[in-house]
């Protein structure tokens, strides 16, 4: 994930949950287990959009 910080987009837990169609608690579990990298800002987490895309691509089997 070595990108220029100005080009990185960070998502909230709620946004990630919506993209992945899971609950907020599931996203928190993924963050706390280390499966989904996140940055903590105060009391909230922000997840890099690239990490979400990588997690989704890794969990989807290659059909074809």
Could you walk me through the main structural features you see in this protein, from its secondary elements to its overall organization?
The chain has 64 residues and is of the alpha+beta class. It has one domain: Orthogonal Bundle (Arc Repressor Mutant, subunit A), CATH 1.10.10. Helices cover 45% and strands 17% of the residues. A three-stranded antiparallel sheet has the order 1-3-2. Helix 1 packs across helix 2.
List its traits.
Arc Repressor Mutant, subunit A; 3-stranded antiparallel beta sheet; 3 helices
Note the topology.
Layout: E1 10-12, H1 13-20, H2 24-33, E2 39-41, E3 44-48, H3 49-59
Helix pairs in contact: 1-2
**Known CATH architecture:** Orthogonal Bundle
Looking across the biggest beta sheet, what order are the strands in? 1-3-2
Tell me the CATH topology: Arc Repressor Mutant, subunit A
- Supply the number of helical segments: 3
Approximate strand percentage: 15-25%
How would a crystallographer describe the biggest sheet? 3 strands, antiparallel
Based on CA atoms alone, the radius of gyration comes out at 12 Å
Order of helices and strands: EHHEEH
Query: What is the average of the pLDDT values?
Result: 88
Q: Structural class of the helix and strand makeup?
A: alpha+beta
The structural domain count equals 1
Percent helix range: 40-55%
Question: Concise description?
Answer:
This protein is α+β, with helices and mostly antiparallel strands. It has a single domain (5-59), classed as Arc Repressor Mutant, subunit A (Orthogonal Bundle), CATH 1.10.10.
């Amino acid at each position: 994930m070595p990108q220029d910080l100005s080009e990185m987009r960070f998502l909230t837990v709620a946004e990630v949950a919506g993209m992945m169609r899971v609950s907020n608690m599931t996203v928190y579990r993924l963050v706390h287990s280390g499966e989904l990298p996140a940055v903590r800002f105060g009391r909230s987490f922000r997840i890099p959009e690239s990490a979400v895309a990588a997690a989704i691509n890794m969990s989807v089997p290659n059909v074809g």
